[in-house]
Amino acid sequence: MKLCYRGAEYDYTPPVLEVTESEILGHYRGRPARMSYVRHIPFPQPVADLSYRGAAYHTNSHGQVEAAPASQSDAHATARSFPMFNSMAAARRQLLQEAARIHQDNIRRSLQHRIAVAQAQGNDALVRQLEEEMHQFA
Question: The pTM is what?
């Protein structure tokens, strides 16, 4: 098919898809109709030993779930077989703990600043309220 875009002519051949008719027969506006589906090219699925809520399972190259091998029945078998994931999890846990510590420090510093401003303004009720908040936070 010849097409033209902004004066540049080119040949376009749309990709050909294999269509298969299913055995499903339906009715549309009173007339019989067959459903047709595009034949998909199989995409290889990753093979892995996984666990979900403590239940171990195995996926094959067709994407189907199989029973886990007997040797890896516990939930931590995957973590032991892939030590890289253990180090990644430890690094992530450390990063989250550091972020939580920094967040608490920022809140504490903000409260101290607000208490200092309330004291400078002579607002004793606000100072008491902020000090109660500081005690709840600690």
Answer: 0.38
